[in-house]
Amino acid sequence: MASTTAGTTLADFATRSLGIGYPGGSLLLLACVLLSLFAWHRVLGSISVDTVVGPRTEIFYWVTITFSQTLGTALGDWLADGPLGYSGGALVFGSLLAVLAAFYFWSRLSRTFLFWAAFILTRPLGATVGDYLDKPLAKGGLDFSRPLATLVLAIAIVLLILAIPQRAGRHPAH
Q1: Global pTM?
Q2: Do 124 and 86 form a contact (C-beta atoms < 8 A)?
Q3: Are 22 and 15 in contact (CB under 8 A)?
Q4: Rounded CA gap, 103 and 7, in Å?
Q5: How many C-beta atoms surround the C-beta of residue 131 within 10 A?
């Protein structure tokens, strides 16, 4: 929750307070994500989340997660505030995640790349769906109250967890 809150605050700072708008803020934040991944790889030799086993790696992980959340927020706001609106933005990000899932199952693309790309896209998907549920009808939303929107999302999350088989993973360090 802390990285999501920090991400939202940093995204608003980058896109609004710096005066560079959504395109400039998104590019700046993409550069921050790429720089954190580059530094992580340069120092520790891998950016796979499977290697997060100690404090040093965790610092790189959480810095990258926070920048990823920030970039995702900026991208979600950018699409939602444009002509596509909240529902259109959710469809775009959901479709992009489906493409990444297809690459995961039917290609040899780097799993680490696919993880970070998917992680970045989950933030704007969640933000645009949440906004679609609670924003006023006049702004393209469904005008649910925040508690009702939260309940709808919580039920959807629980149903997805129950519907998608869960398997215990193995950590490479064990």
Answers
A1: 0.84
A2: no
A3: yes
A4: 27
A5: 23
